[in-house]
């Protein structure tokens, strides 16, 4: 299910939505593209009882380990597009598959132990190891979010250009 849709070619703008989630693990996929010009991606949430949005904390984000998810961040891949930049909405049919849109990742980190908080172009380049693209790229973070209690959670992205958040209920093998 798409939780937040901030797709399109645009400057920094916010999009948010609320989802009723049961306690436990849910798979999460966040995808982002940059077609040219400036870019940024800030992913936050407002858990129950919180007054303001805060960045998604690493202690609720889990990589997709072979059997049991591991805390501390999501799996991350980036793809250089070479200037062929379809909007994200046209690539979602395979976004949760191992092979996304028949693309081969340019690089990856399993997991990338960082919050999804990149306020500008330089933040991507300065903080993601081995990443050096300023334009024409796609990114995908995948893993699990561990929801502490059953309730409604509001998720928000502030981005230039467009991301999507997806989630679905997941039962982990222990």
What does this structure look like?
There is one protein chain. By secondary structure, the chain is mainly β. 4% of the residues lie in helices and 47% in strands. It is built from 1 helix and 13 strands; from the N terminus they run E-E-E-E-E-E-E-E-E-E-H-E-E-E. Strand 4 and strand 5 form a beta hairpin. The two termini are 25 Å apart.
How would you summarize what this structure contains?
Helices cover 4% and strands 47% of the residues.
Q: Secondary-structure blueprint of this entry?
A:
Blueprint (H helix, E strand, L loop, with lengths): L1 E4 L7 E9 L2 E11 L5 E7 L7 E2 L5 E3 L6 E2 L2 E7 L26 E6 L4 E2 L2 H7 L9 E11 L3 E10 L2 E7 L5
Antiparallel strand pairs: 1-13, 2-12, 3-11, 3-13, 4-5, 4-10, 4-12, 6-7, 6-11, 8-9, 8-11
List how many beta strands DSSP finds: 13
Radius of gyration: 15 Å
How do the SSEs run, as a string of H and E? EEEEEEEEEEHEEE
Query: What separation lies between the terminal Cα atoms?
Result: 25 Å
The description of the largest β-sheet is: 8 strands, antiparallel
């Amino acid at each position: 299910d798409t939780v937040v849709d901030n797709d399109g070619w645009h400057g920094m703008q916010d999009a948010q939505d609320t989802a009723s989630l049961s306690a436990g693990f849910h798979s999460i996929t966040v995808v982002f593209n940059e077609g040219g010009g400036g870019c940024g991606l800030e992913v936050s949430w407002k858990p129950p009882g919180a007054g303001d949005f805060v960045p998604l904390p690493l202690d609720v984000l889990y990589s997709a380990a072979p059997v049991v998810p591991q805390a501390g961040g999501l799996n991350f891949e980036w793809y250089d597009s070479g200037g062929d930049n379809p909007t994200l909405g046209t690539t979602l049919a395979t976004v949760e598959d191992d092979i996304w849109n028949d693309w081969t990742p340019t690089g990856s980190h399993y997991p990338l132990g960082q919050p999804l908080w990149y306020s500008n172009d330089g933040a991507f380049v300065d903080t993601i190891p081995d990443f050096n693209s300023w334009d024409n790229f796609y990114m995908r973070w995948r893993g699990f979010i561990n929801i502490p209690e059953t309730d409604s959670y509001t998720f928000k992205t502030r981005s230039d250009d467009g991301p999507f958040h997806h989630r679905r209920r997941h039962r982990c093998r222990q």
